[in-house]
Description:
By secondary structure, this protein is mainly β.
Amino acid sequence: MTLRKSILILFALFLSMNIQAQTTGGDPQNSLLPEINPQDIEIRSEFKARFPGLRRQPILGFNPKPRVFRIDPNRMPFMETKEEAVASVAMSQLDRPDAPARSILRTPDRTRGIVRAGIGNFITPELEGYVYQGINNKSSITGNVDYRSSEGHLDDQESGFRYLNGDLAFNTKIKNDTKLTIAAGGLSDFNRLYDLDPVIQNVLTETAKKDYAGFEGRITLQKTDNALQGWDVSLGGNVYAVDLDAGSSNYTGEVNEQRAELEFSRHWAGSRLYETYYVNGSVRAGSYQYSGVDAQPWFDTRASIEYRKLFNFSAHVSGKMGLAYISDGFSNKIYITPELKIRYNLKDAIILTGGLYGKPEMKGVQDHHEINRFLNFETQLRQSYTSGIYGEIAFQAFEGNRIFGGISYELTNNYSYYDQKATSIPAPGGSGQTLNTFYETKYAKANVFELFGGITQQLVPEKFWFDARFYARRPKLNDAGDIPFEERLGVNGSLSYKPIPKLTIRSWAEYVGKRQAVTAAEELNAFALINGGAEYQITKRFGVYVKVLNILGQKYEIWRGYQERPLQAYGGLTFKF
């Protein structure tokens, strides 16, 4: 072998070793690059370079996912069934997927309570409060309080008063359709009376005063199956006491009353569409006693059934028939209590309403003293029965607006009214004189004929609305003239305006016509009370308010002998939580 051949052989061996080192150098298991023979090259361009004799393996391209290496290029595609696809999946991954998250509207903030407190001239503080507190998703507690007082507005006599009333209720759901309510309340009031005639006043040490105290409680169970079927039952009672202190044994005394009530009602749908039945029953019993007289019991029990039917979505008829047994300690009577009411939509905007009824009534001691705060303690209770008929026509062009007018007539046996008690005062020489003292309850047969009309308008919803009502009536005693202290003409109305969401302006007014006082043989003058006020909500929780009563400063009397308050201004704060 020549030297030249030997050098060529050595150069070829060296070159092959160098190529082998570049090809197999490093551990292929430790490399993330694909195992590709660098001799197998594909140039992606307009031309290709090919090296015959070498096995071709194209570059797979860039993939962010981990690459699978050593895949047989001649493999058959794997065709699997659904069962085979999930055969190797863990059982935990086969559970039902989670439900999508609920997306509901945000519940508006609910006012749990509101307190309004202020003070007016004549040192007249006032407080109104309401609270709602949820205990859980089934139970809640509600309560409210109302307080007003004054040191008095009259200069020549004491005229102060206080009215404090409040109640508390616990509500809970025994079942989804059954609700239990336990409520209790009380009152503690007093007011100064008017000065009596000077002849009588000489024996009194001060202006007479009446104190009122009472407590009541009630348990109600209500079951509502649906809008057309359900029942409720309630049991309650109260005690009430009135103490009149006139500084003299002749005019001083007290009256006490206790009563209990049991009421039940049930309603259900009839066998035909749009008809409903109602069954009602009640038992009320009480006893009252005033100074110098034994306890007088009274009893009132009633039962009735009512049928309601809607015809062609235009006529609604309601008929009721029942019986009542009432005993007042002086007489016992059984009454028939019919009632018929018809409501007919003549057109979309015209509504006709009419009806007739016969109903008994048994007012208690508390009912009378709440009507007339100048009653004496010698309260006597009598049952009454009223027969009546009425008709009304209303025009309602669109929602929130209504104009109406009508007529009614009532005839009442043992109609209760109030008049000043006449007292005979002996004088020297055997002669005497008759003077008027505090009011007493009287009963007589009476009839009342009335024409009425009114309007309710909400011109701009939630911004401007008002309502007004007028009436012209003839209240007559069958054996005398007008019913004492009942007017023949009256108007009342209110207006509210909300120029901005935080400011509300209100005004309310009342006109009462002349009234007859039989014993005094005189008429009480008519009067017009115009009142106004405004409330501004400073923040979400705090606000301020002002109001003015009797803006015209009218001197008026509701009951003869006592002048009511003149112009009075209030200011205060409102707190919501």
